[in-house]
Write a structure and sequence with these properties.
Strand 4, helix 6 and strand 5 form a beta-alpha-beta unit. Helices cover 34% and strands 16% of the residues. Strands 5-4-6-1-9-10-2-11 form an eight-stranded mixed β-sheet, with helices on both faces. It has a four-stranded antiparallel β-sheet with strand order 13-14-15-16, with helices on one face. The protein starts with a helix and ends with a helix.
Amino acid sequence: MKRLFLLTAALFSFTLPLASQKPDVLVILTDQWSPRYTSWDNPQVKTPHLDQIAKEGMIFDACYTTSPVCMPARVSLITGLYPHNHGHALWGNASGYYVRAESAPMFRDMQQAGYTTAQIGKLHWNSGPEWKREYPTPPEYYKALGLDMVKDIAGPPDNATDRGVYGKYLSGLGLLDAVAKDIRRRYVLWEFEPRASLASVEQYHDSFTTGLAVDFIKEQPKDKPLCLVVSLHSPHPPLDAPGEYATMYDPEKLTLPANVPESFKRENLTVDQVTMKKLLANYLGKISLVDHCAGRLVGALKERGTWDNTMVVFTADHGEMMGAHGFLTKGRFHEESARVPMVVRWPTQVKPGRSKAPVQMMDAYPTIVEAAGGSLTPGRFARSLMPIATGKKERVRPVAISEIGDSPPLRIMVRDTRYKYWADEAKEYLYDLDADSLEMTDLAADPAHQGTLSRMREQLLLQLRSSQVNFAEGYKSKVKRVREEEASRQSPE
């Protein structure tokens, strides 16, 4: 009987902590992933590992990047701020920019909640050596950001002098010169040329990044939770899916959305639908490679024994037009570019399902902080998705916005639960996404929709007015301060 009691107690002590322990946190951040190409919306896409994560979590169908280009989107993630906010102020990719540590508290918030923090892969919060004005070495900068470990792998090297960790790896294999020449050629001629990488699947940068992430997971003590951001470069061009991923998809069997024209001009090249399907096949190959990497990360967490209590956030910094409306790359407010995949998975805490609530990619930051039982640094405009993911609320914000521009007038988009509106230098645009998900019919000039147009303008203005960093908040005039001091002196103890 005593032996049975001890065995029962041991089993109880082993299983009980899952509900009370802090979860491990894994953020899978991809680059330039069009929301048109998620397997839960498009059966052509082969991503079994991400499928399972999505099946166990909540899919956010109306998640938008704060900016449809890399740097400002990534800065929003770690700051919880919009590009129009002080502390961010980046409306596009730029040279000579770095995010200041005091403005970017995501990792510090997780450290203070008891986590070991790491980001491995493409960082892209900065450009150039500007950070050296404030921090003598990279480790000092990363420490100020609240990161215990960092490995920056920007992507494929285009220079044989590359001395980053991935460049050194390729150099050790005798591949750096050939890979760098190949990447440079693609950039010069056309980065969308669909052709297999000179690196094998095992040697490819996303595989290398994932290997470092798996090693990190294996090295962490099991009695302390980890917060790991794995930032993969794919499916961002060049279209150089490696090995079997370059041939996984048969272009002739792929179908294109109706908003991809029969042919269009890009960089003096005519892209017809036959060519477009070849581009898409390689792009999807890179997506399936990311899925393979996700499977390796899941396997490492299962081996660690924490998978059943791991929060996973899967998203992308921005999307990719992939031929829609006759465009490639990003930087636009169409769905393919401004909307991004977003899945939040945490067993027993997050209700599996789908939400149409407008949310922002940067909402990943307060979501993981809430899951960690931490405190969000004040002054953030990102919102935790946990109230939606747990079924307590339908929405945490009325609209989502996105911003981009390198010269006036700067462009801003707003999306509510049904409509999307934006204005550029030439005109205004309005789409009914319920009736026209491919954005084929612009309603801005339609007399029947002028009321909606006005309402969306007002929604955008209200969102901008409601999301300003206000250093005057809480200020008390000298008269008020003096009166309060006098009142405190005269009040009886």
